[in-house]
TrEMBL record, chains A, B:
Annotated organism of origin: Palaeococcus pacificus DY20341
GO terms of molecular function: methyltransferase activity
Keyword Transferase: yes
Pfam families associated with the record: Methyltrn_RNA_3
One Gene Ontology term from the biological process aspect of the record: methylation
Full protein name: Methylase
Origin: domain of life: Archaea
Record-linked CDD domains: HsC9orf114-like (cd18086)
Keywords on record: Methyltransferase, Transferase
Length: 259, 259
């Protein structure tokens, strides 16, 4: 089962403070990581922050030792220090290299092909011809330090997709098996007979000011969701913020899932 | 059913930034309000922020129009502007007064006894002799504007208790019917047969660095919890922050509760 979440590019429409805006995106990054979300989709909903949201989500997802390679200093990252560390399995600390260990790395060319995998020395990349940028590697030798490309089995962070497309088009692109809209006006999640979930499951969230269905309407769109659910029945506050809805909804579905 | 949450005075031990510290407490206030928590207990766990946490929680819980009466300007409130509004039923906007309406107010003495209930004029308090500070009022007449003390039936915010006592002592003081510790090492909430909950239910949370059981041990204490639960089974991050655990746990129990 692969989890996707869909958030609007208007996520920050009610936040003016740049530090808090950064922190809020960090909360989405944390929620996604806690529950093993593999894809975060940012859809067009009239907001102006799509690129910024993507930048902060990707920054948060990148192991600390790779950030200086992949994120040149820029003004939008001024408050990146407030983003809580994810502490997922792929954010490894520096340690003695072990054969078999999987680490994220970035290609560094120095005559031969090397990767910075966050250790004291660079690792030689075997069969690394033509590689660029960030990859996942397995250590196959420690003296000399050598790595090959690897496919991790445990949770290894999320990918961010800024589609610049409306919600219905973004959903189509994601090719979900089950699409679940969250809405205060949806069915009470406690009363619905939920199907056995399999494959690609998408949870769709609205913006601080507009619900999912309203956003679709604004774009003259329609989408046949498998479920439209109120995942916070009897909420006592008039609104639930997107980042709160993400964490609460994933917590409920993490409880429901049995695998 | 009445929900209580227990948070340590070391809640902020990993946050140095004062704006983020304020915001984090605001997140606890929001989580409590979304799910109708009526009591927030701050227990002693070696932290230094008990008073600050209480201040911000109470500030957040106070309707905006009463804040200037009850919270004189002070340095700790410098970043209070970042606290998200709760938008609970007791945070009313200014409107035309209606007979029967319940509003929070604060006593203002001006010869007779008046209350500021957030409207254009002060309300005369009937039978208000000896009253001071903040109370809940019902409008009984609009011309002239008159109120009496009232007991709201809907969710009306939370009370904050800074006990300055250790966890076991704080729990004893709260006189719970069911005490639930949250812990990564607890039983998987999905596998436990949960009792029908009634009465006063307490959810106990640890600090960013120490779990509930560890905190008890540090104080040479023991407490017989009804349940020790892992409410976020299979978490993919090494730690879950207190404010995340509060929101996620309450979301799961809101799903479980059937009333």
């Amino acid at each position: 089962m692969t989890w996707h979440i869909f958030i609007p590019d208007s996520l920050l429409e009610e936040s003016k403070d740049q530090k808090i805006r950064t922190y809020k995106i960090g909360q989405i990054a944390r929620a996604a990581s806690i529950f093993g979300v593999e894809h975060i989709w940012i859809y067009r909903a009239g907001g102006k922050d799509g690129k910024f949201i993507k930048l902060i989500l990707e920054y948060a997802e990148t192991p600390q030792y790779l950030r200086r390679h992949l994120f040149p200093l820029r003004d939008e990252l001024r408050y990146a220090g407030v983003i809580p560390p994810l502490r997922t399995p792929h954010h490894k600390l520096k340690s003695k290299p072990k054969v078999g260990e999987i680490r994220e790395g970035v290609i560094v060319k120095k005559g031969r092909m090397y990767a910075d995998i966050g250790l004291d020395e660079l690792a030689v990349v075997e069969d690394g011809k033509g590689l660029k940028g960030r990859h996942t590697f397995r250590i196959v030798s420690t003296k000399p330090l050598k790595v090959v490309l690897a496919q991790p089995e445990e949770y290894w962070g999320y990918k961010v997709h800024l589609t610049k497309k409306s919600l219905a088009k973004t959903l189509k692109k994601a090719r979900l098996d089950v699409a679940i809209a969250t809405s205060r006006k949806g069915e009470d999640v406690r009363r619905v007979k939920l199907p056995e979930f399999e494959g690609n499951i998408g949870f769709v969230f609205g913006s601080p000011r507009k619900g999912v269905l309203e956003i679709l309407r604004d774009f003259n769109e329609d989408y046949e969701f498998d479920l439209i659910l109120n995942t916070i029945p009897n909420q006592k506050t008039q609104t639930v913020r997107t980042e709160e809805a993400v964490l609460a909804t994933l917590a409920v579905f993490n409880f429901i899932r049995r695998d």
